Amino acid sequence: MSLSSYAASGQVTLVGAGPGDPELLTIKALKAIQAATLLLVDDLVSEGIVALATASARIIRVGKRGGCRSTPQSFIEKLMITAAQEGERVVRLKGGDPFMFGRGGEEVEHLQAAGVRVDVVNGITAGLAAVTSLQLPLTHRQHAHGVVFVTGHAKPGDSGTDWRALAQTAHSAKLTLVIYMGVGGAARIQQELLSGLAAGTPVLIVQNASLPQQRHAQTTLDQLHATIEREGLGSPAVIVVGDVVSGVSAMDQTGIYLERRG
Ligand code: SAH
Q: What does the pLDDT average to over 170-199?
């Protein structure tokens, strides 16, 4: 398949850049990046991935890190629509998977409403990369029947996640929780989850998953906030709650995952 079919002119491709490590990109994502004439890049996309674009491609960073204010969503959408209509091969590079939080769905709706063709390419979502890097399966059948990906940060005006209901369900249905954007609100999340989950429920915090500066801490639910403070952990990080996390402590010095016994 030719490169251009991955990011044809006059269309926008939403590309999942994965958690940071360029080697975790899909081949489709790489081809779309290399075919792009214009890239709009979120701030959780690593420089190693942006560097894969051709030298002639225009790169616009639209994130809010590095001291700049984030570009308003409406402006990003207008820019994509205009550029696509002018025949550019537009790639919208988003961290992780484009449809796992991060407003990919809204962008597709606006582009489609403007009559712009849109393609979406999967990326590895941060919650998966974080645990896989520690050889921890989110659905280890000894510990969990399933997994919930949930946001710790609601959009303005939304009452947000019902942590109490979630805690009860996670307990009764044996579900692992993977919390995105939860570090800032960890004190409240901890307090509310404790209404349905035991104080000793294992918890893992992974910051900068897949990047050389990756760090993690393992603790229990009643120590979640204190651990984040003590270890100086910050965004971007995912918080994993549930018995599957006990596998991390069972990891030996060589990093091999050992099943917890007994
Ligand atoms: N679409 C993204 C998520 C966007 S929301 C994805 O699929 O991964 C942004 C949140 O993702 C961050 O607040 C953090 O919780 C998580 N995140 C993104 N990159 C991360 C990384 N490298 N390590 C840990 N968490 C990350």
A: 97
Out of 101, 131, 132, 136, give the residue to mutate to test ligand 1, the one with the largest number of ligand atoms within 8 Å of its CB: 101
181 lines ligand 1 (CB under 6 A): yes
Burial class (CB in 10 A: 0-12, 13-18, 19+), 113: exposed
Burial 29-39 (b: 16+ CB within 10 A, else e): bbbbbebbbbb
Tell me which residues are annotated as active site: 42, 64, 181
Q: Which residues contact 262 (CB under 8 A, 6 or more apart)?
A: none
In the chain, the domains with their CATH numbers are 3-124 (3.40.1010.10), 127-260 (3.30.950.10)
* Closest residue to atom 25 of ligand 1, CA basis: 237
Beta strands in the chain (DSSP E): 11-16, 38-41, 58-61, 89-94, 117-121, 146-151, 175-180, 202-207, 215-220, 237-241
Ramachandran category for residue 14: left, alpha or beta (phi over 0 → left; psi -120 to 50 → alpha): beta
* Cβ of residue 125 lying under 6 Å from some atom of ligand 1: yes
Identify the pLDDT of residue 2: 54
pLDDT digits 0-9 by tens, 155-184 = 777 888 999 999 999 999 999 999 999 999
Q: How far apart are CA 23 and CA 27, in angstroms?
A: 10
Ligand 1 neighbour 126 (Cβ under 6 A): yes
